[in-house]
Structure formats: structure tokens, C-alpha cells
Amino acid sequence: MDFVGKKVTIVKSLDLDLFGLLDLVGRSGIAMEQLDDPSRRKQNRGCYVKIAGDPYQEEQTWFIPLSALKIAE
Question: If DSSP codes are grouped into helix, strand and coil, which group holds residue 67?
Fold first, then answer.
């Protein structure tokens, strides 16, 4: 699935927990770049997402695993 340019919502996933980013669950943003080449390890496939609203830990853009993304409604 291609997420680039789409509004996404961050959802809870084991991979997101492994990255230590569960505080981002429920936040939305725009997927800027997708890194899902088959040569990448499964848990390292994801998107750089520009988070809407206030920054998280002083950063606006975060790498979010694909397992923690869904297209926003």
C-alpha cells in the first residue's frame, strides 16, 4: 500500500512499541516518504510522517513502522 502524500493515523503495534513511540498512538499526520524495500528488515519498513499539531519531543517528523499506520478517514 502506498501511503505517500496521504493523511495517516498512528495506531498501536508491537513494532511501534519496539521503537519506543507508543506516545504517538492516535496522532495523525502526512506520510512524506515510504521506505519499504524488500531488502529492509520487516520491522524497519515504514514511513517518515510529518505529525500534525504540536511536535513530539521537539520533532515534527518521525519514522513510523508500516504496522503502525492506517489511512485516516
Answer: helix
8 Å CB contact between 8 and 33 = no
Identify the burial level of 56 via C-beta atoms within 10 angstroms of its C-beta, where 0-12 means exposed, 13-18 middle and 19 or more buried.
middle
Count other C-beta atoms under 10 Å from residue 13's C-beta: 19
For residue 38, pLDDT over 80 is answered with no
User: pTM for this one?
Assistant: 0.90
CA distances from 66 to 1, 7, 13 (A): 9, 14, 9
| Helix (H) or strand (E) run with residue 17 in it | helix 14-18
Three-state DSSP at 9 gives strand
